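Hi support team,

I'm opening this ticket because the web form for multi-chain structure prediction keeps timing out on my end. I have pasted the exact lines I submitted so you can reproduce it. The total is 666 residues across two entries, so I didn't expect it to be a heavy job. Is there a limit I'm missing, or should I split the entries? Thanks in advance, R.K.
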Amino acid sequence: MNAREEILARLRAALSDQPEPVQIPRRYAISRTADLPALFTDRLVDYRAHVHQDLASALSGVDRLLVPADIPRSWLDRFSATVVVDEGLDVAALDRVDAVLTGCAVAIAETGTIVLDAGAGQGRRAITLVPDRHVVVVRREQIVSRVPEAVRFLAGSATRPQTWISGPSATSDIELNRIEGVHGPRRLDVVLV
Amino acid sequence: MTDAPNPLVGAAPFPAAARVELGKPQLRRNLRHATHTIRDKRLRVVSELDDWEDLRAAGSAIKAHVRQNLPELLVEFEAAATAAGATVHWARDAAEACRIVANLVIGAGATELVKVKSMATQEIGLNESLETVGVSAYETDLAELIVQLAGDTPSHILVPAIHYNRTEIRDIFRQHMPDAPDGLTDDPPVLAEAARTHLRRRFMTTKVAVSGANFAIASTGTLVVLESEGNGRMCLTLPETLISVVGVEKLLPDFTDLEVFMQLLPRSSTGERMNPYTSMWTGVTPGDGPQDVHVVLLDNGRSSVLADPIGRQALACIRCSACLNVCPVYERAGGHAYGSVYPGPIGAILSPQLTPGRNESLPFASTLCGACYDACPVRINIPEVLIHLRQTVRHRPAERVAFRILADLMAHPRRYRAALRAARAGAGLHPRRRRVAFPVRRAPWPGSRWTAARDAPLPATETFADWWARERA
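Hello R.K., no limit was hit. The queue was backed up. Here is the completed structure from your submission:
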């Protein structure tokens, strides 16, 4: 018997007492009413992300800006420094920009989470990982209240790569205190439009 | 492989190992500080959700459903992941899993790889096994890096370096990190920066990564990894080959089940509303991330845990480590005393079940206070399983004889009354005989074997039966 058949046989034998089927109680909340942009902002500030109301202030100090190829052109209208478009750049090239600008799929107010699902204006995963600063545009109507609302929205694109981002890179490994800034982008700028 | 120590079994039984650990005052201070910090954070973020108990109930039921349908769900996962471009492997035990990973790494022409923190790969001793075939595995999680540099073993599921404070971590970096900057201080952001610099080039150049998974979605073939630092994203995104070792119990039926677990896990583990980064991937995505993706489904004793109707609930564990942080025994003894990569209350029920006939002292490493059950996000009744496992352990001959005599006395009222009279007469000789509230803390031999870890109550000066006979008869 190969490993697959043997493991499956062992598991079937282990269940020979035929336990009662379970009903899954789903009494938890799917959403809640709240001032979503305000709640979202509060959570982001708690993670020490920077929250902006306009793109220009979020991009201040950026000389070389990386963008995915399908970024909305209007986002770059008033940006005068160098724009680097990702057309399969290698890692070293990704490491030479000051910041990356993307959109997102959905945002969760309750947890201060931004989800990228490789959809329009988001690019591949490496571009939001290697640069040290990530500027992300969140449209107010993309903000949902709670995790279940977001997961149900994302279920349609579940097999695309997803990255859930809640604040800048951080660690709790030293005495269990949260410290921002390890391997991922050390600065997260969120633009609410 | 057969000569390597089993990462699930310690060299000494818990009481002996704990005695050594209890003699380290710095360790106890570090643990107390860390566990209390995380406890308070967890309580704060859990109390924010008014439906926390509903989430726990759902999480527990989903995991029970998974256990009961595990063979079908595994086959479903395999089909979906394969259709998405992943290669699915099956490993009966640790040795087989290590062999599969080693062959894949060697097949990819690599002699080194980067790792995302993973309990499954700790459990199978993957790093040590790879070393024997000339492959170096570099841990990239900060705490795992600290432990690996120190040549130590993890002492906590979530924060393997919880037993070190910042100054000790600085000293480890100074001694063992070749590129540690001069004048490294023990300021945590400075230490984090040193780790970033140390690992960055490795992330950019290493061709193979190994991970575990927090969840595996059966209907889509998706794997999910939660992390904080971005080292996980680096490993899961930049290399060409990605190998994930996943315990068979990690499955969830559907993607939407994440709506429960993405709330339960972050709040229970690091006490955050959400962890900084979560990555999800399904097989291969052209032009995005590793193009050679493997999943190793691991049994390694899980099927035998599943066969125990009471013990099988341990397979619901999502490795959050909330039970460790609230456990009075863990807080004092620390993770190394348990001898297994799974320490604390969950380790005390999981390690013995994964290694039948071994780890027999672990179910006794608990006061049965139940704090672990209250904290568990998937409501594993750890005290119930502890008691169940205690009953399966073979007791010492003297203990067996003593309890057989006791059972015999209790079955015969006259003998029982006579024994009580004798005990009272004996207790009458004790200097504390009038103070029943004060138990005997140290009995003379052979009773000392019993009182070494327990108090023995003195019999009351009058039994209820005697009182009843005197007052009411």
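A quick check on our side: The CA atoms of residues 37 and 140 of chain A lie 7 Å apart. Let us know if the file doesn't open in your viewer.
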